[in-house]
Amino acid sequence: MPSPEAPEQGDGVHTVVERRRRHTLYFLEWAARQRPVHLDTEVDMTRVQQHRAAARESGVRYSVVSYLLLAAGRALHSHPRANAAMAPGWPGALRRPRVMRFGTVTGKLALDRDVGGERAVLSALVPGLESAGLERIQQRVDRYRGQGAAGLPEFEGVRKLGRLPSPLGRAAFAAALRGTRWRSGLFGTVSVSSLGHRPVDGFHSAGGTAVTLCAGQIAERPVVRAGRIVAAPVMRLGLTFDHRVIDGAEAADVLSHVRLTLEDFHDGSPAEARGPDAGAARAEPGT
Length: 287
Prior knowledge:
Blueprint: H1 22-31, E1 36-44, H2 46-57, H3 64-78, E2 84-86, E3 99-101, E4 107-115, E5 118-126, H4 134-145, H5 156-163, H6 166-176, H7 184-187, E6 190-194, E7 211-225, E8 228-242, H8 248-263, E9 284-285
Parallel strand pairs: 4-6, 6-7
Antiparallel strand pairs: 1-8, 2-3, 4-5, 7-8, 7-9
Helix pairs in contact: 1-6, 3-4, 3-8, 5-6
């Protein structure tokens, strides 16, 4: 049922009691403690698009976010310092800053869904990204994109927060974040968000993890290959990192690793992990 509306207050203004998005509001209050810094790059998606086209011919559909999740998992596995988050309790007068580093990579995928008649963002978790193949990742993504996804057991906590009075909901949200053992099961260890289904070139958001990847649309843009300007499918990729957890050089290495994995994707297997300077001779998107 949609949120109840108060009587009209003049000039067509209504006051709406927000319920289905309360989990987002509680999250934003908590996430305000982060110190986000933003990077971006352009990714030549030629090989990814070729692989998607070949898969479609055999009746298999792969989403762009599945490739991005795969690349994120490989990158954070190779850069474990970025697979982390600030531990609860800091800043505090008597507590030293502590960082939680996770042994596995869990993706948190932002989804635009209808929840009880209202549009809301749900966070779907995709675990085991350090070793998961593309097919397994896509199966998980399809589960969350199916009809009635908002009713899945994984989102029961979100539904409960919407039913609780605001003071209790805020307290319940804060209590869930105090423990370290289940932190990755709530927020994942790397966040992925895409607006590529809309005419959006690029954006940045902070997903509560040390690294958040933000993908825009894939569009034909000029790139330089062998000294010639040609058209290629290019995606703008943003990376937001929490400066409390990692520094810019580490974040740049992660972004470079993700980009190279996507650009070197071949036959359904990601490229082997390479350093941030590898592939310097590859085509650079032009303007």
